[in-house]
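Supplementary notes for students who missed Thursday's class. We covered one full example, reproduced here. Read the sequence, then the structure, then the short commentary at the end.
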Amino acid sequence: MPYRRKKLTFAISSPDEFLCYLVSYLANTIAVDSDINSRLAKAGDAFDKLQRRLWSEHSVSLPVKIAVYQAVVLSMLLYGCESWVLYRRSVRKLDEFHMRCLRRIASINWQDRVPNTEVLHLCGTTGIEAFLLQAQFRWVVHEVRMQDDRIPKQILYGQLSSGKCPQCGPVRRYKDTVRGNLKRCGILPQSLISAPLDRGQWRSTCRTAIAAFEEARVASLQRKRAARKHQVVSTNTAWPCDRCNKVCSSRIGLFAQRRTHR
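Structure (token representation):
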């Protein structure tokens, strides 16, 4: 009896179903939550495998550890992030994983009360959002330079001929994400028409804009932290710790602070 090859078909019927294609998860709701969860799991597995051999080794310097972390863990975490349409909850989830890894590499515990801005300065790196912006701007330039018959460029500049928006509001498109990120970095969206033709100039412009965005973000976090500290000190219901002189805003916070000195 001759062997008959079966034809493989992929069908997504329910909103929660997705399929894995080229190590990326594709959902029929255009959401990237399943792909991000998969990236977090794989990056966390790779980070744990290097715990004994690299992160816990005192003979290896911190810059070398950060370089290996960016080459192994971050490359696995941000695989395919150029095409992601991210909301703030997804960026916050990725940033929490990024900061947790940096704290473990630098041997900084939460009891040390070291803010994230100082951790980034100590490790000599940036937040996860700067890596996302750099990857997205690099991919958009490739799409703009493509020929008009290429599918990625047609999808980028294409419009739906029919359809309706859901009651909760329109779903964020990829071009909307790119336009918003360009404005946040101080780059005009109209510059995508002619600026990417000069690769060197566009590369330096993106590098400068992303660096300025990261500096503004860190400065904003430092101002907010200073304002919170000033508000705690200026209130009348302050509870100072008798061991480290830290001022707590509540009595339960004072009890928690005293437990850290045991």
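Commentary. The two ends are 76 Å apart (CA to CA). Residues 54 and 262 are 30 Å apart (CA to CA). If anything here is unclear, bring it to office hours.
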